[in-house]
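User: I'm putting together a small comparison set for a docking exercise, and I want a reference complex before I start. The sequence is below, and the ligand is carboxymethyl coenzyme *A. Could you produce the 3D structure with the ligand included, as structure tokens?
Assistant: Of course. I'll restate your input first, then give the structure tokens for the complex.
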Amino acid sequence: MTQTTPTATITFSDGRREAIELPVMEGSMGPDVIDTRGLGQHGLFAYDPGFVSTASCASGITYIDGDAGLLYYRGYPIEQLAEHSDFMEVASLLINGELPTASEKEAFVGTVKRHMLLHDLMSNFYRGFRRDAHPMAVMVGVVGAMSAFYRDSSDAFDPAQREVAAYRLLAKVPTIAAWSYKYNIGQPFMYPQNRFGYAENFLYMLHATPCEDYRPNPVLARALDRILVLHADHEQNASTSTVRVAGSSGANPFACIAAGIASLWGPLHGGANEATLQMLEEIGDVSRIGEYINRAKDKTDAFRLMGFGHRVYKNMDPRAAIMRQTCHEVLDELGLNDDPLFKLARKLEKIALEDEYFIQKRLYPNVDFYSGIVMRAMGIPNSMFTAIFALARTAGWIAQWQEMISVEHRIARPRQLYVGPGRRDFVPIEQRG
Ligand code: CMC
């Protein structure tokens, strides 16, 4: 029996155009996709601002089922990876496609460690920033500036250079992030230590000073590693799409990842973890939760409950479910259950989960609601929350950029529905007004 490729037919109610038949593509899991590439030949484009119903690429990296609350990296459920794996292994999985063997993992971790140090001249960049510069502002600049230092791994079309760039980015972004904070608080930059794991090294560079020994707390390092695993990739979100669009022109990988960091920074995306904490501080007391819930429901008020809702998950975000558990473990471990801010967070979570507006719109707490609270409990400053998201997501960005550049692709060039003025003649300035 021969299998025929399914098609979809577009018909036009005004009768001015003939029906158009379009192929339907089937993925290995998830919804089918109508291949609209041929529409241009008929003088038509698909209209989808915000890419609500658009598959911008075919990808074999991450699978999400938002209704069922599923997230898989290369086919492995996030729950299994969060429990049994670690961030280095997950980064290797995302970038290389398979879980590494013991010797592959050792080699991967060793190479990342050896690349963590920054070119010494890069420290000069920091001195050009104001002391109060936001770490994300510094990261956009310094990661982009890597292309000025590592020109031997800047050619996006050379697979060997791409591989070196991938290691450099994965390894140096934590150092760049930690140094952004050190610069803020006027402490000396701390060099990475090869004796530490990835998350430990980051905590070391963030919290240690040359004056005394510092050993990262293993419970907190493990919690941070889990945050990194949960944030490592998330399909074609805003920042990942930004990386792909930037990379589609053949731009160098450092510039592309800097573009991703810029996109991630927004409060509707990676900036939500920092915004959640700011919101909790602003609410200030359990007695004011009702007022803020009412503001979130009020369509005339721009306020939204930060850390709630998701474009894809209309069920509990599976990362949030894991983070919620980690959050409670960390608060217990650190004896912070009576801290007023964390009490407020728990109360807000409960009320929002029971509120009709949030239930009806399927707005659940997302991963950033809990990760912000966990990082705060761990003593990580609010301004570093999104930077930590960025260093985790660097693994996914690299994998997605590699996938995009290594398959046949075209420069990303969306079209538009033009709604501006029709043709008109120039009016000299003295005749205007
Ligand atoms: N508080 C109050 N109402 C909300 C919220 C919220 N946090 N999120 C969505 N809504 C309402 C929204 O007003 C709209 O109502 P209506 O249908 O009456 O107009 C409806 O729910 C659908 O919202 P939307 O803005 O059309 O949904 P979206 O898919 O475009 O946006 C979102 C998704 C995550 C940007 C949004 O839920 C939001 O702004 N959440 C707060 C910011 C946040 O926590 N972001 C982190 C997302 S998870 C990590 C990441 O991906 O980076």
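The chain has 17 helices and six strands. The longest helix spans residues 159-185.
User: Thanks, that's exactly what I needed.
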